[in-house]
Request: fold
Amino acid sequence: MRSEQEINRAVGSYSDMIRRICFYHLKGSADTEDVFQNVFLKYLLYDGDFADTEHEKAWFIRVSINACKDHLKGLFRHSTVPLDMLLEEAADIEPDHREVLAAVLSLPAKYRDCIYLHYYEGYSAAEIAAILRSKENTVYSLLSRGRSMLREKLGGDGLDE
Amino acid sequence: MTNKIHDAFDEIEASEELRSSTVQFLQAEREKCGSGQVRRPAWRMPAAVCAALALFVCLGWYYTVRVPVSYVSIDVNPSVELALNFYDRVVSAAAYNEDGEIVLDGVDVKGKLYTDAIDTIVDSSAMQPYLTKDSALTFTVAAGDSDKESAILSGIEKCSGCQEHGGQSYTADVSSIAEAHDSGLSFGKYAAYLVLSGYDSTVTAEDCRHMSMAEIHSMIREHENECGHENESEDENKCGHESVSEDESKCGHESEDEHGHGE
Reply:
């Protein structure tokens, strides 16, 4: 079991990232809290060692994504909460940003992880493939298609490759 | 646009309330852990039960289907051993001399019920040259359970292969199997060797390896006859060998007065 010091450090380091992953996967703050806490509980009980902080971060990303998917599967909550409701939660977000978030969140689920991990966390396609345990070519395809869909939704502003 | 996505996501943060409630939650879980009440994910128990059940089923399958629990040694001159599973089906067949190898080369008995396997072996063309009127077709059963041994003996006696060729059947101790194999003999031939060596200590397992069952039986018969005469006037202990076989039965048309391993 992890020490209190390790837990406090992890909560300090990864809370925002896990919150964002929960945000684009889940549709309600109560669910977010459940999944959020469950991710850290897994960390508390996880006995494995991490090679470095990057390894630990990748573990948190994978566990968070899986926890969100499991939660959605378990409750059959796919698309049960409209996007507007979700964005009400982020009412104090700037209108431009809300528009971007709405566009990202309107993408099919399989694109969102790649878009988030690439454009926010700055991972390359190869790194995303390793984290998601997917094929690099699949990640390239998802990124490319996701970009196209975002362009359609957000107008002509090009997204960097 | 890249910056827009980054900036937009940057606005999503974990609130202090969420962080502190999580820290409190983890503290509570840690205390439960200390008192052995840690909350495990709900799926863990059913998954563990399923895994245990699957393991149990696999082990049960492995034990009943793959693990030999009884053995039948078929000896004429070819010496062949069948290892049977819980359902009396052949798990493996092994030859203990060259003649046995020739017989097994021509048949496939794996997976067959032992009675079918015996019929297949006895009826095989490779076996026919050895099944003469002077030969001694001998079946020896070892199961470590007298009920099981009786059931297998009974099955063997009903085999057409046993009845047509006048086979004799015996039981032997399971513990003798390893000793037999160490001596390079099937446990059926080894049981006969033990009986013979009870009469004549100069006979070795190696000698028996080169003898047919008919030859071994013939020597045993000679010693029994000698004993019979000596017993009338001399020390009874001279012939007081203990038979390895506990049970002996005959099938087919052999006369009842022909000798067996037992007393």
Summary: Chain A has a mean pLDDT of 84.
